[in-house]
Design brief:
Order of helices and strands: HHHEEEHEHEEEEEHEEEHEEHEHEH
Strand order of the largest sheet: 1-2-4-3-5-16-6-15
Helix content: 25-40%
Distance between the termini: 7 Å
Shape: elongated
Number of strands: 16
Bound molecules: zinc ion
Largest sheet: 8 strands, mixed
Structural class: alpha/beta
Strand content: 15-25%
Length: about 425
Amino acid sequence: MTRHSARLVLFFLLAILAGLAVTGRAMDPQMDRRIDAEIEKFKSEIIKIRRFIHMNPELGNREVETAKLIAARLQPLGFEVRTGVAKTGVVAVLRGGQPGPVVAVRADMDALPVQEATGLPYKSLNPGVMHACGHDVHSAVVLGTAMVLHALKADLKGTVVFLFQPAEEGAPDGEEGGAELMVKEGALDDPPASAVFGFHVWPESLGQVLFAPGNVTAAADSFTITVKGKSAHGARPQEGVDAIVIASEIVTALQTIVSRASDPTDPAVLTIGTIAGGSRRNIIADRVVLEGTVRTLSEANRKKIPLLMESIVKNITGIYGASYQCEYVPGYPSVFNNPELAAAMKPTLIRLLGKDKVVEWKPQMIAEDFAFLARKTPGFFFFLGVRGPGQPAIPLHSPTFNPDERAIPIGVRVLSHLIIDALEGQSALAAGGRGL
Ligand SMILES: [Zn+2]
Ligand SMILES: [Zn+2]
């Protein structure tokens, strides 16, 4: 399918789904009951699998055992399983019994270099490594969805591609990895998907789904600025070029990029996270290194900000006779939810969860490499509330992050319905004679 025809298909799919939403008709009440029955059947196994993955966390591009577990669960069911995709990734294809289009769903599998401090009976057995970002839940939910949809295979109108992706948190130095490499290695091409779904757990109320049409997360780029001055005795400043004074001016001036040079309705963040320089209290520093991150939503800001940064650094160092080096490293792009797909999926969410549990949200300035998948294929990414009633809102990456496991069957239910409704919409289109 060409990119153009994929867009055309999406357009008509959305029109059909929107039509169904307006009439308020459930897709198939019998299917609803069957999904619930399958979830009930698999629930305890899925939670066990999640706990096993939680106890055995693996870092990015090293998810060997996690990938093995996933492949071993799906292969005997007849999924077409490819392993070793983007290093340790797994792609599992489920072909439904009815003809229809292809949609994909992605889970990330990697853990973080964090020492777990939850005290849970199923806490990490791998010292210094923890599933502190909930990717264990993502893997279990997507695996559970695969099991549920497999049970409904005969009536499934199309094909579902399950992507288990390594290294969302970043690949080890010098290695490629993550969603970018999955796309490069054709994870969305064989068979070609016309929509891709993904989600992240979030410390919001259990049972809630939060999403933003359009930008969901920010592009996250990083930088290192080195100011090179000249050392001198601390009592004879006239003989040196003080890199600390110059760096201080740079730190202050860089803040004006967001406050004075950016459109206030187009959010951006410029954070300097480290500053290091000098060797002794009475020696003028000849070198200061600043490190930081820039978060943007629009491509315009993403292009403009590094240019403004370099201009500030160049001019301030120039005034004082210092030299500089700017290193700017692009990171993940912004996750962009296809607005029409998001609008078409919203009625499914409302039908499942109730209006008050479906929250249209603002973009978050965090980063997610799902962005690469959603750049390749129209994407829908949402956040799943995992904070149980009365539980504190512990942020992601915290050593005490402990998502409520009751979110797991909710996640399976949401994903199963999103996928089935997306396939149904596209199949209705195919039946209308437009072809896929
Ligand atoms: Zn994370
Ligand atoms: Zn994460």
